[in-house]
Structure formats: C-alpha cells, structure tokens
Amino acid sequence: ATAPETHAFEADVSKLLRMMVHSVYSDRDVFLRELISNAADACEKLRYEGIATPSLLGDDPQPCIRVLLDADQNRLTIEDNGIGMTAAEMGETLGTIARSGTKAFMERLAAEAGKEGSQLIGQFGVGFYSAFMVASQVEVFSRRAGSDEAASWTSDGQGTYTIAPVDLADAPTRGTRVVLHLMEDAKSYAERYTVERIIKAQSGHVPVPIMLFEKPDADGVDIADGAALWLKPKSEISEEDYADFYRSVAGQYDKPAHTVHYRAEGRYEYSVLTFIPETKPFDLFDPDRKGHIKLYVRRVFITDEAPILPRYLRFVRGLVDSADLPLNMSREMIQDSPVLGAIQKGVTGRLLGDLQKLSDNDAEAYQRIWENFGPVLKEGLYEDFERREALLGLARFKSTTSGDGWRSLKDYVAQLKENQTAIYYATGSDLDRLSTSPQLEGFRARGIEVLLLPDQVDNFWTTMGVDYEGKPFKSVTQGGADLGLIPLVEGADKPTEPENAAVADFLAFAKTTLADAVSDVRASDRLTTSAVCLVAPESGMDRQLEKLLASAGQ
Ligand code: ADP
Ligand code: MG
C-alpha cells in the first residue's frame, strides 16, 4: 500500500472550517442531519447502481444507517452500507467545495462581509463540513462498492487533511464510516437521549432505516423505519411529518408554505409529494434555473436532474415516484421518455390548479407565496404559452391604487373606467420611483389603475401581445395612450391644452433643437403637473426594455 498523503484544503474550505470551529452557532444539531443525509444519499446511489450491477450489493442488499455512540471515548460514529468512496473520491469530495449550497454560502459570506457567519450557516447548511462544529477530529473510513481496497480520510479541520490506505478490516465491508471525536462542549452528542431525539426530529423520514447503538457492545435499536412517507395515505401523515420530510428531501431549513401530496392513477401511475418553501431558496435566480424535484422509480431514487417541472416552478421541492418507468433505463433515456413528458404535464397542471384553489380559499397564504415566487412564476408568462391563461389568473400586482395590497387581473378588469379598453402598466426597477413617475399623471387624473411592474421578467412577457379577457396590456410609456376618450376624475388637474398656440411654437422649437435625438415631440394628455416625459413610439420597444437591451449590449 502507498503511504499516507497530506493535502491542504482548498482555500475556501479552510476559511469555512476556521469559521465553523469558532462558531457560536446555537443550533449545532444540524450536523447530524447533514451526515445522515449523506449516508442516505450513499445508500440511494447504491440502490440505483445495484440495478445494473447486482453484484455490488453482495450478500448485504438491505440499506442501513448505523449510529454508534461511545460516551467513554467521546465518540460518535455514523456508518452506512452505501456506495462508499475510493481514496481519490474522498480527496475530490471532502477536500473541496463541490457542493453548490456550500459554494453559495461562501459567496454570500464574501458579499456580506462582517455579518456573523454562524447565522448564515443556519440558513444554508454546509454539508459534511458541519461535522467540525462538534468534532475536533473527523475520521472517514470508506470502501467503495465492488472495490477490494479501503482508505481513510482524517482531518482536525485546521487546514489540512490526510488520505491513507487502510486494511480492509478497518473499514466497513462496503460504504462509509464517519467517526467524530467530539469537542469538550459537544459531549452530549455521544448520549443516547440527545442523539435519538435529534435524529427522530430531523431525520425521521429519510428513506433508509436508521439503527442506534447506545454503547460499543450494545444491541442496535431501530429509530427510523426508512419507509417512504410519500406512499403512506395522507390521513396517516401529520403536518410535522411533512415538515421533517420537506427539510430532509429539500435540504432546506425552513418550513413548507404549501404541500401537495397525491397519487395519479390512469394511463400512468405515480405518486407526488411536493412543497413550496416558506422562504426563497438561495439558488432561485441562478442562471441555470435548475429544478429540484427528485425522480424515483418504485422507491428507487433515480435522479434529481430530470425535468419534471418547467423552470418557472423551480422553487418547488419534493419528489415524484413513478410506477411506469423501467428501472434499468439510463438517466439520459429517462429524460426523453414520453412517460416523463406525461408526468410533467400532469404535475404542472395539478400544481397550478392547486395554487389557484389556494388563492381562492386563503388569499393571504397565497399572497405570501406570490411575494416570494411571483417573479419566477411570471417567467411562465413568456415561456409557457399553453398555461399563460392559468398563470395570468395566478398573477398578482402592485398598482397605483393597490396600496400595500396586491391586485389580480380579475380585480383590475372588474374596475375598468368608461371607454377603457386596455390594461395599463408601467415597468421599472423600483416600485417607489415607478409610482411617482410623471408618466402616470394623466392616468391618475382619470382614475385609471396602472399596474406597477418592477421585476426584470416583466420587461419580457409584456412585449408578447398578452391579453387578459380580451384586454391587451399596454405600457404607459408607449405613444398615443388613448386617454382622450376617458373622462377626467372630478377636480383633477387639467392636462395642458394642446390647441394653445404657445404650445405649438414650443413643439416646433423642441423638434428642431432635438433633431435626430427623438422621432417626434407631441403635446399629450398624459401629463398634468410635469412638463415633459419620454415615451416610446406606439409600435416601438418599451422604454425599459430598450434600456435593458442597451445595457446587455444588444
Ligand atoms: P452534498 O451532500 O450536498 O453533496 P456534502 O458536503 O454533504 O455535500 O458531501 C460532499 C460529498 O461527499 C457528497 O456529495 C458525496 O460525494 C461525498 N460523501 C459524503 N458523505 C458520504 C458518504 N457517507 N458516502 C459516500 N459519499 C459521501
Ligand atoms: Mg450532504
């Protein structure tokens, strides 16, 4: 065998570890959840690989996580019989920040310099490294399924780690053993009461059974059965169960704001358990717009990369378990399977329908969801033509008359003014500035409600000829907003009188002075107190969109 090799952590890992060691983070318990979730992931990976290569399972086909306590030695061990890691894999995965959540954490930390790092850990969870919140030394012994070599990875979290080959007898027969040498103030993590309580609360629903061993020579007791929560009838599941499961399936630290659990029967059969988070996940606006629905086939985890939901529903967490996909299909082939297409259609329709119901029955709960995810859902207005109607029904807006509340389009069209034929909107990046824009004066004077659209995405869907109940969307910055036909509110400031000769003189003067800088200068109904404003030509691009494209170099 080769000699032990010592390596330096990636710079970011060192920083993270230093911070963790000095962390005063109050909820250190989460480290256990992270390690158990890694163990469960490893078992699920093996379950999947074992389909194509049954020999990997050997004579130990039942996945299991064992938690072993040793209070005398101040030791806590988490062991799984999952896929395991080779020495090289340990170097790659435990020495670097490969995990996207951890990466995002470090980025946020850099961006919010000075902010207490330990608070951020609580929002993100930093995976494997959280072990160093409670351990002064971590040893990992692992043997990859099918391999006849084993290796160890050891670190005190001070900047380096060592990888060495070990005798087969010193590693699990298959899988990974993580041994934590607990810090003085973390001794309680070797006590049964504490550990059992934490596991039941945090990890009671991981899909792999968990056994606890109170002492080195004690018999194990089952503390979690590894049953698939999503296959149980709803009546047997409490809100707490759902919340626990949500946290473990989503790797989130908040609660679900809304849960959708059902079984589809008919042409295809599948179970769905999905959650809308209570808070915005950190990767919501990542450019790859990745979804987070896990795909299972008859309880076997297949992938979390399958396009089960459209991108504008990427904030939804959870899983779909299909009975119709063949288990021995490659992940790539599954992506293109018509079954997956049917599932996507079914689940998307169901989720939108459910949101519609929620908005009818519990407007407040729905508005909280919209506040978090509205800008994402609106992407569907230009991406998903088929469901545009449904999405317009779900959309909520701030407007010149909404105050702190939200308006639906149904509300809007119910209160159209006499002769008003369009839904007026203004786009911009800032709600306050939008609402004081001079463009709105003529609308205010007529009591016409204008939707205020502050999100980037609003610059796109509004240009696609969208209408609602036959009323087209029209930007207030576009030319000839046909306000003349709509009567003024009583007592409103009168707009400038266009026939005025002085105005005509001024218009001529402005046109010659501005020359090619503008295509026209016109007197307008739209202003009451401001002197001028810029507008886009009737058929031209909206001003905000022009700005956006200009800044993107187009
Ligand atoms: P994540 O689980 O989000 O990928 P972690 O920091 O928790 O991030 O783990 C990093 C990586 O280390 C995992 O992706 C996996 O490749 C590897 N790993 C950690 N624990 C285990 C384990 N018990 N068995 C196999 N691989 C593991
Ligand atoms: Mg993990």
Automatic annotation (TrEMBL):
<keyword id="KW-0963">Cytoplasm</keyword>
<dbReference type="InterPro" id="IPR019805">
    <property type="entry name" value="Heat_shock_protein_90_CS"/>
</dbReference>
<comment type="function">
    <text>Molecular chaperone. Has ATPase activity.</text>
</comment>
<dbReference type="Pfam" id="PF00183">
    <property type="entry name" value="HSP90"/>
</dbReference>
<feature type="domain" description="Histidine kinase/HSP90-like ATPase">
    <location>
        <begin position="27"/>
        <end position="186"/>
    </location>
</feature>
<dbReference type="InterPro" id="IPR020568">
    <property type="entry name" value="Ribosomal_Su5_D2-typ_SF"/>
</dbReference>
<keyword id="KW-0547">Nucleotide-binding</keyword>
<dbReference type="InterPro" id="IPR003594">
    <property type="entry name" value="HATPase_dom"/>
</dbReference>
<feature type="region of interest" description="B">
    <location>
        <begin position="332"/>
        <end position="547"/>
    </location>
</feature>
<dbReference type="InterPro" id="IPR001404">
    <property type="entry name" value="Hsp90_fam"/>
</dbReference>
<keyword id="KW-0346">Stress response</keyword>
<dbReference type="InterPro" id="IPR020575">
    <property type="entry name" value="Hsp90_N"/>
</dbReference>
<keyword id="KW-0143">Chaperone</keyword>
<comment type="subunit">
    <text>Homodimer.</text>
</comment>
<dbReference type="Pfam" id="PF13589">
    <property type="entry name" value="HATPase_c_3"/>
</dbReference>
<feature type="region of interest" description="A; substrate-binding">
    <location>
        <begin position="1"/>
        <end position="331"/>
    </location>
</feature>
<protein>
    <recommendedName>
        <fullName>Chaperone protein HtpG</fullName>
    </recommendedName>
</protein>
<dbReference type="InterPro" id="IPR037196">
    <property type="entry name" value="HSP90_C"/>
</dbReference>
<keyword id="KW-0067">ATP-binding</keyword>
<dbReference type="InterPro" id="IPR036890">
    <property type="entry name" value="HATPase_C_sf"/>
</dbReference>
<comment type="similarity">
    <text>Belongs to the heat shock protein 90 family.</text>
</comment>
